[in-house]
Each structure stands twice: as structure tokens, then as C-alpha cells.
Amino acid sequence: AGAAFETLSENQQQKVARFNELTDQFLSADKVVIANPMWNLNVPTRLKAWVDTINVAGKTFQYTAEGPKPLTSGKKALHIQS
To answer: Which InterPro entries does the annotation name (predicted)?
Structure first.
């Protein structure tokens, strides 16, 4: 659960609001195109942070007895990595 939004500091509230904005932007997109370099056999830190931000239980996926299930069925995505 976590702390109630109104009990968070102004800085924390701004960060949570930005996380929600990024998640809503992802959910409202018809298609998602991601292009990135490969750094040390991995994705750049900022891309990893974005992926972590938009993975929200109850919004983009849900936990079930069989494990996590996506709530983004039908969303088209293209990932280009060099």
C-alpha cells in the first residue's frame, strides 16, 4: 500500500504525479516505439527506469495465482536496439 498521497512531501508528490503521468502516457499510446543503444550488454539506465516506472500493478499488469498477467492486451510495440 504505502503512505497516503497527502501525507507525502511536496517533492514526493511531484515524483508520484510524474510517475502517474508517464504510465498514463504509455497506456494512452496506440503504438510504442523504443530505440536504444546497448550499453555493457544492457539497456541504458534511463530506459530501465522508464520501464520500472510504467510497470504498475493494477494499471499495466495484475498479479494472479498463475503469476503476473498483462493488462495491456492488443498494444503494439517495437523495440530497436543496436
So the answer is: Flavodoxin_fold, Flavoprotein-like_sf, FMN-dep_NADH:Q_OxRdtase_AzoR1
Distance CA 7, CA 58 (A): 22
How far apart CA 73 and CA 64 sit, in angstroms, is 16
Q: What is the pTM (predicted TM-score) of this model?
A: 0.82
- Give Cβ neighbours of residue 61 (< 8 Å, ≥ 6 apart): 55, 68, 69, 70, 71, 72
- Listed by start position, the domains of the chain span 5-81
* Whole-angstrom distance, CA of residue 70 vs CA of residue 55: 10
pLDDT average, residue stretch 51-70: 96
